[in-house]
């Protein structure tokens, strides 16, 4: 029996996955993205939705920081994977 893929295809055959972006406060925002979409686009969209500059946020997947040019395909993401978001904190004395 063939294994079912968690990828969703639209009418043009483009593959999408659903990602859950979870902030420090526990709020979740769900995104549907193409496998080839750079994660920088998702990061900017999330920052716009919560009303903060994207430069103040850090996005992690599997404990590793996500770069803007990486795609879900490069990161081996699957449907319903979780991206964690943290506010950057600058240390002091």
UniProtKB/TrEMBL annotation:
InterPro entries per record: Rad60/SUMO-like_dom (IPR022617), SUMO1_Ubl (IPR046332), Ubiquitin-like_dom (IPR000626), Ubiquitin-like_domsf (IPR029071)
Ubiquitin-like domain span: 17-92
Q: What is its main location?
A: nucleus
Q: Does the keyword Protein biosynthesis apply?
A: no
Location comes to: Nucleus
Pfam families recorded: Rad60-SLD
Indicate the segments annotated as coiled coil, or none if absent.
none
What keywords are annotated for this sequence in UniProt?
Isopeptide bond, Nucleus, Ubl conjugation pathway
Family, according to the entry, reads as follows: Belongs to the ubiquitin family. SUMO subfamily.
Q: Which protein is depicted? A: Small ubiquitin-related modifier
| Native organism | Soboliphyme baturini
Q: What high-level taxonomic lineage is stated for the organism?
A: Eukaryota, Metazoa, Ecdysozoa, Nematoda, Enoplea
